[in-house]
Design a protein that fits this description.
This protein is mainly β. The chain has three helices and 27 strands. The protein has a twelve-stranded antiparallel β-barrel with strand order 2-4-5-7-8-9-11-12-13-14-15-16.
């Protein structure tokens, strides 16, 4: 295989791994959607919208599986590689919550999820042709994303991708294209959602991204791939219902109440992702870039929540057996006001209260921490001052929205709810 062709495959690998970040902060939508989205952006205002999705907590052991396809034929063609073709790569991406940790974010101890992401993708036998030789192209991906508990913003992501070509589909002839590792760090953490999500809501974010690349390749100098950039994005919730692109949907059948979040980068349409409250995460992320020659889709087919009764991986999350419910007195409150909050800790689908258990209340936006203890009925109560801090998703409709956490640090069970600071209530 020529060095030019190998270089094209490494470029392919870099695009694959760069789009795997959990934030998916800059996917690109087709130009045909720009006009209708721009009209909606100007006309919608839904401060009192009835349809909302609040943030949900994750649990160690939760797992999402996505049908994943990469159509990269135009990417290969645009890298001026003659005599080469690559069919659509397909496989599964599995996201699983591995741990709950702390990270220092701007001097604040912040609760985060550690999410492992694994994927194996292939063109299938004879799905790739290089220098007239037919074979199989395989891509293996493994990484970790670090997600802030209070709002599901991505703090950082690190991952490794391996690309291999098998001439004549024979393993003993396999040629390693490269093994490349990437660390993406986001300042501030990259928020693709602004909870509570409501149809028509808009918000803006600015994020500085620093990317460090290491690895081995005989065909590409990975030392020159480090980069940093500032991105300014505007988001709007542009659709509600079952995730669809107009012609197809997802395999998972329990996401009829999903919200489509579309993005603009400096006024240019720049992506969308469907959020499904039933599965506590996104149900479909679609990246389409004719300029880059890429069409990539992650479509939910299974959700397997840990500690759940009556769940079906293909259609229903069931009911969490052990939960901490966080119930603030108000979900919208004036800045600098006192807010009462109740936390209810129970198991056996709410039938068995978890009594005499130490919990911690976390209002991380101003470093408020409180120790709570559940009573005979599994409930704990407290008050705190919400302060007046804004957030990193600016909007004209509120001062800021923040996640209120109550958790069991021993069992690592989390409850979370969003409280909006609104000077007009």
């Amino acid at each position: 295989m020529s060095r030019v062709q190998m270089r094209a495959l490494v470029v392919l690998a870099l695009f694959l791994l760069s789009t795997f970040s959990a934030a998916f902060s800059a996917p690109i939508i087709e130009n045909s959607e720009l006009e209708s989205l721009s009209e909606l952006k100007l006309s919608q205002s839904t401060k009192n919208s009835a349809s909302t999705a609040n943030i949900s907590s994750w649990r160690i052991g939760d797992e999402w599986t996505y049908d994943t396809t990469f159509d990269v034929a135009q990417l290969i063609a645009q890298n001026n590689v003659s005599g080469a073709s690559v069919n659509t790569l397909a496989g599964d991406t599995v996201n699983s919550v591995e741990n709950i940790l702390f990270a220092d974010i701007n001097g604040t101890q912040t609760l985060i999820y550690e999410v492992k992401i694994d994927g194996s993708f292939t063109t299938g036998n004879s799905g790739a042709t290089l220098e007239g030789i037919s074979g199989r192209l395989d891509v293996d991906y493994e990484g970790f994303d670090y997600i802030r508990v209070s709002d599901l913003a991505t703090v950082s992501s690190q991952f490794t991708v391996d690309v291999e070509f098998l001439p004549f589909n024979l393993g003993f002839l396999a040629q390693d294209v490269g093994s490349i590792s990437v660390l993406n760090s986001y300042y501030p953490p990259s928020e693709g959602f602004d909870f509570p999500i409501r149809y028509g809501d808009t918000w803006n974010t600015t994020t500085y991204t620093q990317t460090n690349v290491t690895g081995d390749s005989d065909y590409f100098d990975v030392s020159g791939l480090n980069q940093s950039s500032n991105g300014s994005y505007e988001y709007q919730v542009t659709d509600y219902g079952t995730p669809t692109n107009g012609t197809s949907s997802i395999a998972y059948s329990g996401c009829a109440d999903s919200f489509k979040v579309s993005a603009w980068d400096s006024g240019t349409a720049d992506g969308y992702k469907w959020y499904c409250g039933a599965v506590r995460s996104y149900a479909w992320n679609s990246l389409s870039s004719p300029a880059l020659g890429l069409q990539i889709d992650w479509k939910l087919k299974e959700y397997d929540p840990i500690d759940s009764v009556g769940s079906n991986v293909a259609s229903s999350p069931g009911i969490r057996d052990t939960v901490i419910e966080v119930n603030p007195q108000f979900d919208r409150i004036r800045p600098d006001a006192e807010l009462a909050v109740w936390a209810n800790y129970s198991s056996n689908s709410g039938q068995s209260p978890t009594t005499n258990t130490n919990l911690q209340l976390r209002w991380e936006v101003n470093s408020t921490l409180q120790s709570l203890t559940t009573k005979f009925n599994g409930s704990a109560w407290s008050t705190f001052n919400v302060g007046n801090e804004d957030d990193d998703t600016s909007t004209v409709e509120d001062v800021g929205s923040h996640g209120l956490i109550v958790w069991d640090p021993v069992a690592k069970i989390i409850g979370v709810s969003t409280v909006v600071l609104d000077s007009e209530v």
